[in-house]
Amino acid sequence: MAFSVTRSPKFFSRARCRFLVCVFLLAVAATGCFRREPPADVTIVNGAEPESLDPAIIVSQPDERLVRGIYEGLMRLDPKTGEPIPGLAESCDISPDGKIYTFHLRTNLVWSTGEPITADDRF
């Protein structure tokens, strides 16, 4: 009785594995050659989704961090000294007894609709 045995070629031969590894490494190396986009002007790593963006009801630091970046108050803190400096206000007058603060708004303030912001507007 005679019979013959034929070997089926291995799908992943050593040569084919080496070739696939080389192609993979070249593809990984080529990804560094593509043009990268410039970094964003502002990057906020907040860590959590904000519960609210309403400055009247926020209670957490992540919410406060976003609200501070979105809204401008009459005064803000100088990032270097921590002293109050004008924000929406151009200047501030304080009465001699320290009980009355008069804010003078900047003249170039406008709402998102383009209408000027005045002292008579209610926020």
If you had to describe this structure to a student in words, what would you say it looks like?
It is built from 2 helices and 4 strands. It is of the alpha+beta class. The radius of gyration is 32 Å and the shape is elongated. The protein starts with 13 loop residues before the first helix and ends in an 18-residue tail after the last strand.
State the gist of this model.
The chain is an alpha+beta fold and 123 residues long. The chain has two helices and four strands, in the order ααββββ. It is 22% helix and 14% strand.
- State the order of secondary-structure elements, H for helix, E for strand: HHEEEE
Oligomer state equals single chain
Q: Beta-strand level of the residues, as a percent range?
A: 5-15%
The SS-based structural class is alpha+beta
Mean pLDDT: 82
Q: Strand order, biggest sheet?
A: 1-2
What distance separates the N and C termini? 101 Å
Overall, the morphology is elongated
Low-confidence stretches: none
Task: Give a quick account of the main beta sheet: strands, pairing sense, barrel closure.
Answer: 2 strands, antiparallel
Helix content: 10-25%
Please work out how many helical segments DSSP would assign: 2
Record field, number of beta strands? 4
Radius of gyration: 32 Å
List the helices and strands and how they pair.
Elements: H1 14-30, H2 61-70, E1 75-77, E2 84-86, E3 89-94, E4 101-105
Antiparallel strand pairs: 1-2, 3-4
List keywords for this structure.
elongated, 14% strand, single chain, 123 residues, two-stranded antiparallel sheet, 4 strands, alpha+beta
